[in-house]
Design brief:
- The chain is α+β, with helices and mostly antiparallel strands.
- The strands form seven sheets. Strands 26, 27, 28, 29, 30, 31 and 32 form a seven-stranded antiparallel β-sheet that branches.
- The longest helix has 23 residues.
- 33% of the residues are buried.
Length: 482
């Protein structure tokens, strides 16, 4: 005789089996703690499975089907066709053909192709730096083709290898009223969000692929500003520079890189980074790095890291804004900062002279400061600022004129102190002092080394200092106010 079973019994078997494991003699020590919990879960599961308005079972209870018209996952709307989205945005995607003169007598030949998107109706186009530059050389001719077949020559407005972003300008008649795209907010994108990539892979113009965000803030070793969106939307050679769209039809990334050994692993520059960079490229033609003038230490916190200031360079933008050691930088222009790398990316891609609003935590109290960024000093100047010869209050970096230093410069050893660096916007910079000057006297006292300069400054009074400086064959007095 066939055994009669409840057709919904298979739903309960896993939990009942686990419950039996808890109740066997060898597990009696755990019975009191786990049995009530397992029994409660089994009752809940049985009640959920018996709700015929929500669930249907397949033959013999082999599977479950969602019978109700209500969504199984609240807030989740399954996608249907992407055709309306693609029709709405594809006109803003362009193909880019790069021409390079291989032989002067043969004229330009096509060297590479890529993708891009129209940023403004008057013809600004965004693409990758590596699309328009090969081996650190700019292309000799750039041709941009729109989806309607029109073709324009283009020039490079600005480009940067460290972020792999380039800004082009279309040239010629008919540039105007172009189908520009809209930019989105890449910070709001989450892992699992749907995205669409449109580009020119292998010369197959306006090819579409779709997928999702696989990860964010990927560091792949390309440069100091690594902060890539990872996606499984297919990206191939020729997609470089093309847009990555969200489901609102907004550009959230610039497709940039792939892993050659893998499939479904592509990377895009977040559009928020591009937004910060574009004014810099348009104004300066390249990345002029903004400088805050702090040393940051990452300190672990629950679930994140903290960017804590450990040092503020004298006369730096941070010093002038009142930032102190111990301050934690939590936001830049309203955007969250959780690490040194995030702070570096957000500040360095802003042009010198830009104003940045920093949100700080000082002794647990939040406050905002406005900082006007300056140009990042040369690396040797930054290194010198950490040397014993750094006079931060004056903005001078000094060095003893040892015999080794004096010989190549034609100076007398210890007959003064060499200026090896001048900090931007410092009293020394305002007074016109330059690297290579030799300080002979401080407040009418002769000096032969950095220690003598410090001693003369300590004996001085007031908010000014008088220096006698030799520049070449000329000596002059310079007054510094600080």
């Amino acid at each position: 005789m066939a055994r009669v079973v409840n057709p919904r019994a298979p739903v309960l078997l896993p939990l009942l089996a686990l419950l039996s494991l808890v109740l066997v003699p060898g597990a009696r020590a755990q019975q009191g703690a786990l049995a009530p919990w397992l029994q409660a879960r089994a009752r809940e599961h049985a009640a959920w499975a018996e709700d015929s308005n929500r669930v249907n079972s397949g033959p013999m209870g082999l599977w479950r089907e969602w019978a109700s018209s209500e969504p199984m996952l609240p807030g989740f709307v399954p996608p249907t066709s992407l055709a309306p989205l693609i029709r709405a945005v594809e006109a803003g995607v362009v193909n880019i053909n790069v021409m390079k003169t291989v032989h002067p007598l043969r004229g330009p030949t096509r060297a590479a192709s890529g993708s891009g998107f129209i940023l403004t109706p008057d013809g600004l186009v965004v693409t990758n730096n590596h699309v328009v530059a090969r081996e650190n050389e700019a292309a000799s001719e750039i041709l941009v083709r729109l989806s309607d077949g029109r073709e324009f020559q283009a020039e490079v407005v600005g480009r940067d290898a460290s972020t792999d972003v380039a800004l082009l300008r279309l040239l010629g008649k008919g540039v105007g009223g172009l189908p520009a795209v809209y930019l989105g907010d890449s910070d709001r994108m989450e892992v699992g969000d749907w995205v669409v990539a449109i580009g020119n892979p292998f010369g197959l113009d306006h090819s579409v692929s779709h997928g999702m965000i696989s990860a964010k803030e990927r560091v792949i070793g390309v440069g100091p500003f690594d902060d890539f969106i990872q996606t499984d939307a297919l990206i191939n050679p020729g997609n470089s520079g093309g847009p990555l769209f969200n489901m609102r039809g907004e550009v959230v990334g610039v497709n940039t890189a792939i892993i050659s050994e893998g499939q479904g692993i592509g990377f895009a520059v977040p559009i928020n980074m591009v937004k910060d960079l574009l004014p810099n490229l348009r104004k300066n033609g390249q990345l002029q790095k903004g400088w805050l003038g702090v040393v940051i230490d990452e300190q672990p916190q629950v679930g994140t890291r903290a960017a804590v200031v450990t040092r503020v360079y004298p006369t730096s933008p941070a010093a002038q804004a009142g930032i102190r050691p111990g301050d934690q930088v939590v936001r830049v222009n309203g955007k969250q900062v959780d690490s040194f790398q995030q702070l570096l990316r957000k500040v360095a891609i802003m042009a010198p002279g830009s104003e940045a609003k920093l949100t700080l935590l000082r002794d647990g109290v939040s406050q905002e400061v406005l900082v006007k960024l300056s140009a990042r000093p040369a690396q040797e100047v930054l290194a010198a600022m950490n040397s014993p010869g750094n006079l931060g209050e004056l903005g001078l970096v000094l060095r003893d004129v040892t015999p080794e230093v004096a010989a190549p410069m034609g100076l007398e050893p210890y007959a003064g102190v060499l200026v090896s660096g001048v900090l931007p916007r410092s009293p020394a910079a305002s007074a016109g002092l330059r690297t290579g000057d030799v300080v002979m006297e401080v407040n009418r006292r002769k000096v032969k080394d950095v220690a003598a300069v410090r001693s003369a400054l300590e004996k001085g009074a007031g908010a000014s200092v008088l220096l006698r400086v030799q520049r070449g064959d000329v000596q002059q007095y310079v007054a510094l106010k600080y």
